[in-house]
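can u pls check wat happens w/ nicotinamide-adenine-dinucleotide
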Amino acid sequence: MQNKSLKGKTALVTGSTSGIGLGIARALAAEGANIVFNGFGDAAEIAALQAAVATEFGAKTFYHGADMSKPEQIADMMAAAAREFGRVDILVNNAGIQHVANIEDFPIEKWDAIIAINLSSAFHTTRLALPAMKAANWGRIINIASVHGLVASTQKSAYVAAKHGIIGFTKVTALETAQTGVTCNAICPGWVLTPLVQKQVDTRAATGGISNEEAKKDLLAEKQPSGEFVTPEQLGALAVFMCSETASQVRGVAWNMDGGWVAQ
Ligand code: NAD
């Protein structure tokens, strides 16, 4: 208990009701941080996730259901988090969606939603979190980008544009805070088997007339040389490192954890 490195800190993780965000929230809670959860889902299931984190790690938790495509709801969430815990010390911009289609067929409303949720929401949370972080001279901002912030794939125009954008935004945030105790970095995962990717596995299985397991293998074989998924727990451990004092000079990086995807 006494060795928990983030005791007394508060972490707000957007999109933490599922997948990578939940993995990161759990890893930060295990280090003693209070957690502000955000994301969609069944109210009873979200309450159960909060209760599990509180019981397992002794963490204080709070939930706000802000839609990350809506700046006024984001502002309300940031104000509620500050009211609840005094300040947000660690901000993890993780909420994200995907849509797969060729550019000429890409629905305009999907483009707008992906840019709003995967990119603009990080501007809104960051602009609202920075004053208190700067005043405290301590803060950690971690943007969950993707290998698609570093390289492209077909049919993911909005996603690739948003993820390249968030890496640029990460660098500007890191430069504007360079002489403070606030750091900002991006994490770029390869394939992680979350609901977001399971949808792509399902489509591949259906269109190829293959099993779910074969579809997973094909998906990995195409891009991820290790042939294995990255896990939310591994990404959580990287986030904990970025929050540590050892990482205080890690600034403005886009750190891929991708089974070798970007090395090719
Ligand atoms: P997921 O679908 O499991 O989780 C997404 C989370 O975001 C959920 O909690 C969902 O409720 C929330 N969310 C979606 N739209 C929202 C909105 N408008 N407002 C608030 N919350 C919203 O997906 P995941 O795979 O865990 O993805 C998390 C992040 O990781 C995303 O930014 C994604 O682009 C990125 N990422 C995922 C992978 C992967 O392989 N799964 C790889 C690289 C990057």
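Residues 108-136 form the longest helix (29 residues).
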